[in-house]
Amino acid sequence: MDFLNALVALANFVLIPATAYGAQLALGALGVTLIYGILRFSNFAHGDTMAFGTMVVILVTWWLQSLGISLGPLPTALLALPVGIAVTGLLLIGTDKVVYRFYRQQKAKPIIYVIASLGVMFVMNGIVRFIIGVDDQRFADGERFIISARDFREMTGLDEGLAFRTSQGLTIVVAIIAVALLFWFLNRTRTGKSMRAFSDNEDLALLSGINPERVVLITWLIVAALATTAGVLYGLDKSFKPFTYFQLLLPIFASAIVGGLGNPLGAILGGFVIAYSEVAVTYAFRKVVGYLLPESLEPEGLLQLLSTDYKFAVSFGILLIVLLFRPTGIMKGKSV
Amino acid sequence: MSGGSGYEDRGNNDRSVTGTPVDHMGDPVPAGGHAERVEGADAFLIGEAMTGGYGGGADILHDCTIAVNPGEIAVIVGPNGAGKSTAMKAVFGMLNLRKGRVVLDGEDITHLTPQARVQKGMGFVPQTSNIFTSMTVQENLEMGAFTRRDDFRETMEQVYDLFPILREKRDQAAGELSGGQRQQVAVGRALMTKPKVLMLDEPTAGVSPIVMDELFDRIIEVSRTGIPILMVEQNARQALEIADRGYVLVQGANAHTGTGKDLLADPDVRQSFLGG
Predict the structure, then answer these.
(1) Closest partner residue to A204 among B2, B20, B130, by Cβ?
(2) pLDDT tens, N- to C-terminus, chain B (276 residues)
(3) Do A203 and B114 touch (CB under 8 A)?
C-alpha cells in the first residue's frame, strides 16, 4: 500500500505536471526548430510570439465569455484558438515582409537574422505589454479537474490523492493532435515535402522549381499555429504573464538544441527531456521516499536537489552536457 | 550561435547556383590550341561562342562552343582548371555571358535563369550535393517532378526500370546509399521532369572504377531513350569511349573537337592530355 502511495505521489507531483509541461515545451521547440530548418536562424522572438498569440486568444475568450458563449466543461479558449492563430499568422507574415525578407534578399549571415529577431522580440514584447498589461491573467474556465484529489482518494481508498486537471489532459491531447498533423503534413503532402527538401538542400530545391517565398510563408503560418497553441496551453495550465513567456524562450531553446536543431522529432524528445529533468530536480522527494522507507529511516530534509528558483539552471546544465558530448543534439540535427 | 562553419554546410556549396559573385576564379588567358568550329545553330542544344565568367569577375570562357543533338552523348574533357564545369554552367545559365548565346531547340535562352531553363526542359545534375540526403529515394524523385502537375507515376516507373536498385531502396533515405547509388538518384531526380536534354557535371567523381563502368552503362541507356546528354568528365579516356562528340577544353577555349574515337586517336590529344 505504501508503495502504491509513493507511486501516486510521484505521479501527482512529478509525472503528470512534467508531461504537460513537456508537451508545451515540445510544441514551442517545434516552432523554433522549423524556423531554424527553413529560414536558418534561431528565432529569439519565439517566446513573445507565443505571448502575442495567447494575448489574442485571451481577448477573444473574454469577448466570448461576455456574450455568454462557452464550451461547457472545456475552456472557452479553445474556441478562440483559431482566431489567435490567424491573427498571429498575419503578424508573423507582416514581420517577415517588413524585416526578414530584406535580409533574405541581402543573403545576410544567420547571425544578422538572429540579432534582427532580437529586435522583433522587443517590439512584440512591447506590443503585448501595451495591450494587455504586465500582470497575471487567468482565462481558464470550464471544469477544473478530470479527476480531483478527493475523488481519487474516495475511489481507491489510498491516503495519497491524485489530481488530473483538465488543462493537463487538454495539453496532452492537443499536443498529440498538433504533432500528428504536423508530421502528416511534412511527410505526406507535396507542400510539406517541398519544405523538407528546401531545408535539406536549398540550391537543389531551387533547381527543382520549389518557390522559396512560398515555403517561407507556409513555415510562418505553421509556426504561428504551433506557438499560439503552445502559449494557450501553457497559459491554461499555469497563467498568462508576458514576462514568464519571455523566460520560456530559454527552456524552449534548450529543448530544440538538446533534441537536435532542425529535427522535429528531436524537438519533441528535447521538450520532454528538459521538462522531466526540471521538474524532477526541483521536486522535494521527501514524501515519496517517506512512503518507501521504514519509519526509522525517514529522511529529515526535503530531498530537494535544487530550489525551484534554479529550474532554468537545469535546462542549461543539460544543454551544456549535450553540446559537449553530442554537439548535434540527441537526434541528429545541425550544429549551432 | 556565433555564425561559425556550422551554418555553412547547406546547399551544394556551388555559389554559382544561386548567382553569388565569386571574387576570383582565375586570370584571363589567351585562347590556346586550335579550335575548330562545330556546326552552327542547327544543333539541338548549343552554347555558341560563349565568353564570360562568374559575376563581375574575369572571363573564364573564351569563345567556347558546346553542342549536342538528340541520341548523342557529348563529353567535355580537359585538364584541371580548363573550365569544363564552367562551360556546362554557362550553358545552364549559371554565369554571365558577355558574348555568345545559348540556343535550345531553336529558342534563344541566353537570358533565362537556371530555374527557367529547367522549365524549358533542361535537366541538370550538379557535381556535389545533388540529392536530398534526408529524404527517401522516392521523395527525391517526387521533388524532381515538383513542377509537374500531371501524373508522374509513369515517369517514375521508367526511372525505376532504368535504375532497378532505386526501386529496391525507394523507402530508404538517399543519404544512406553508396556513392554510385546516390548518383543514380541524382540522375533519376533530373529525369523526373522529362527533360529535353540532360546535363551531368562529373557524374563519376569519387566512385570506384567498377561503379564508374556501371554508371556509364546507365548513361548510355538513358541516351538510347533519345535524350541528348551533355557531360563533363574527369575520366577522359573512358568518357571519350562512349562519346559521340567530344570537346577538349584548354584554358576556357575549344582546343580539340571531334567524335570520341577521333579524339582518342588524335596524337596531339593523346600526348598533351591523355598521357600517351
Answers:
(1) B130
(2) 444 444 444 555 555 555 544 443 333 333 333 334 445 557 899 999 999 988 778 889 999 999 999 889 999 998 888 889 999 999 999 888 899 999 999 899 999 988 889 989 999 999 989 999 999 999 999 999 998 889 999 999 999 999 999 999 999 999 999 999 999 999 999 999 999 999 999 999 888 889 999 999 999 999 998 899 999 998 888 899 999 999 999 889 998 898 989 899 888 888 877 765
(3) no
Q: With an 8 Å Cβ cutoff, are B3 and A109 in contact?
A: yes
| B146 closest CB neighbour out of A109, A209, A336 | A209
| Chain A residues close to B173, C-beta within 8 Å | none
User: CA A147 to CA A281: how far, in whole Å?
Assistant: 26
A197 touches chain B (CB under 8 A): yes
CA distance, residue A98 to nearest chain B CA (Å): 23
Pick the CATH number of B29-121+195-276 from 3.40.50.300, 3.30.70.120, 3.40.50.720, 3.40.50.1000: 3.40.50.300
Partner residue facing A335 (CB), from B6, B132, B142: B6
Closest-CA distance of chain A to residue B182, Å: 14
Residues A208, B143: C-beta atoms closer than 8 Å: yes
What does the domain layout of chain A look like in residue ranges? 2-325
Residue B51: φ, ψ to 5°: -130, 130
Q: Does A43 touch chain B (CB under 8 A)?
A: no
Query: Which of A207, A213, A265, A332 to mutate: most B Cβ within 10 Å?
Result: A207
Which cell is B180 given?
554510385
Distance CA A272, CA A259 (A): 10
Domain boundaries, chain B: 29-121+195-276, 128-194
Residue the block writes with cell 498568462: A240
Quote the radius of gyration of chain B (alpha carbons, Å): 18
- Which of chain A's residues have a Cβ under 8 Å away from the Cβ of B133? 200-201
> At A129, is the secondary structure helix, strand, or coil?
helix
Which residue does chain B place closest to A186, by CA atoms? B135
CA distances from A331 to A254, A328, B131 (A): 14, 7, 21
* Cα dihedral B178/B181/B183/B184 (nearest 10): -170
Looking at residue B105, the DSSP 8-state letter turns out to be: T
Of the candidates B260, B188, B180, which has an alpha carbon nearest to the alpha carbon of residue B222? B188
Tell me the CATH architecture of domain A2-325: Orthogonal Bundle (1.10)
SS3 assignment for B87-101: HHHHHHCCCEEEEEE
Amino acid at A49: T
Helix, coil or strand: residue A138: coil
